[in-house]
User: Which sequence fits this backbone?
């Protein structure tokens, strides 16, 4: 017998699904500290549960989740709600996102709760994005960027070389040992009949075998270097959040469309560290200088572990190198002008990249003299490319550069 369970009606949630909420909250979840440049710095942003509720409320009040007529009705309903009803609404929306796997809520341990006290109720809660959220945000950003480029499809990196593969796009060739046995039946039978004439049974010889040729698909190893120095959120502009979005979009593109490629991420500031893409959404800028040399050293080490046809470094920065790790481990800093010691040591690493065949493409988010001068030298040495761009066009330039690199001779 079928049972129906009835519960108390607690109000609707405006028929908003979790995906719509994720779209509206993408900037909040990927925040880089720009909203409060005087905050207490930490490596990872700590979104509290109350911060998330306020972000949801702002999204509802802004009307971006609804059409124009419905948005006005929603605003009036929100104004008429009591404090408890509004809090219940926000709690239901948070619960929906947690149940669908987009967020996790973490309760901080209480420091003041005694053995007989109930510290659980007063413990602050924070929210963390999940791998599902990272995947969704990367897909959303990639879709938006490619839509603005007018690209409906994208595929693997093409080269000038031909190879025997499954997807045939070139003329047939005589089979050689080691080729993929993707036989061109018509050409094979024609070669046998040319040799013996039309008769049955038809005897095939080794020299009659012909295989279809496909375009050789090269593989590429990419290290994305992200500058997370303090200047990335100064001067009235948030440059780091767009950089994180582009990194997520590039990771989604490579994972879904270029499975033979690899992408690894390096954060460079006073030093450099590899960052897992699953942690990228939580990274913030800090009171750091720009140690480009350490970033290049780590990027070379990571690329040496990859066995790919092409190796490249994609560097996103808004400042010239201003820090250096000395041989004894001390940090040397000079943010004024082009410091000869910092620049010379950094260019030494650029030259090592050149000798290893590593391409360096730089995306500049500022146009000060020091940065432009440094990037020009890097471009000349590595024969890479330099793009002067803005946070609004960064994704378009970077993805176009990645997708358009379709021809390269592999030796």
Assistant:
């Amino acid at each position: 017998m079928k049972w129906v369970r009835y519960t108390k009606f607690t109000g609707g949630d405006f028929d908003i699904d979790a995906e719509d909420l994720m779209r509206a909250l993408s900037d909040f979840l990927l925040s880089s500290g720009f909203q409060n440049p005087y905050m207490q710095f930490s490596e990872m942003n700590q979104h509290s549960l109350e911060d998330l509720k306020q972000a949801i409320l702002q999204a509802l009040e802004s009307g971006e989740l609804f059409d124009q007529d419905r948005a006005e009705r929603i605003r009036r309903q929100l104004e008429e709600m009591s404090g408890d009803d509004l809090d219940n609404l926000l709690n239901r929306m948070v619960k929906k996102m947690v149940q669908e796997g987009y967020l996790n809520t973490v309760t901080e341990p209480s420091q003041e709760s005694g053995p007989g006290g109930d510290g659980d109720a007063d413990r602050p809660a924070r929210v963390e994005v999940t791998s599902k959220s990272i995947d969704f945000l990367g897909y959303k950003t990639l879709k938006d960027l490619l839509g603005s480029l007018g690209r409906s499809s994208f595929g693997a990196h093409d080269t000038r070389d031909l190879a025997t593969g499954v997807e045939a796009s070139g003329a047939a060739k005589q089979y050689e040992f080691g080729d993929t046995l993707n036989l061109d039946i018509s050409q094979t039978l024609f070669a046998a009949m040319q040799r013996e004439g039309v008769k049955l049974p038809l005897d095939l010889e080794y020299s009659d075998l012909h295989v279809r040729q496909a375009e050789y698909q090269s593989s590429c190893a990419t290290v994305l270097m992200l500058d997370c120095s303090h200047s990335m959120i100064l001067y009235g502009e948030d440059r780091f959040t767009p950089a994180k979005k582009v990194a997520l979009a590039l990771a989604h593109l490579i994972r879904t469309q270029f499975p033979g490629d690899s992408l690894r991420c390096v954060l460079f500031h006073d030093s450099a560290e590899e960052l897992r893409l699953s942690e990228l959404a939580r990274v913030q800028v800090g009171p750091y200088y720009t140690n480009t040399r350490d970033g290049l050293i780590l990027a070379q080490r990571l690329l040496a572990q990859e066995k790919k046809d092409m190796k490249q470094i994609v560097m996103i920065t808004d400042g010239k190198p201003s820090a250096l790790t000395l041989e004894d481990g001390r940090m040397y800093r000079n943010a004024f002008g082009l410091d000869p010691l910092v620049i010379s040591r950094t260019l030494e690493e650029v030259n090592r990249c050149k000798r290893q065949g590593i391409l360096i493409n730089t995306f500049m988010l500022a146009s000060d003299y020091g940065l432009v001068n440094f990037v020009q030298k890097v471009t000349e040495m590595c024969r890479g490319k330099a793009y002067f761009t803005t946070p609004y066009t960064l994704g378009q330039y970077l993805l176009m550069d990645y997708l358009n690199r379709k021809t390269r001779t592999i030796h």
Q: What stands out?
A: The first helix runs from residue 18 to 24. The mean pLDDT is 78. The chain has three domains: 18-110+120-129, 137-156+218-404, 162-215. The chain is about 40% helix and 20% strand.
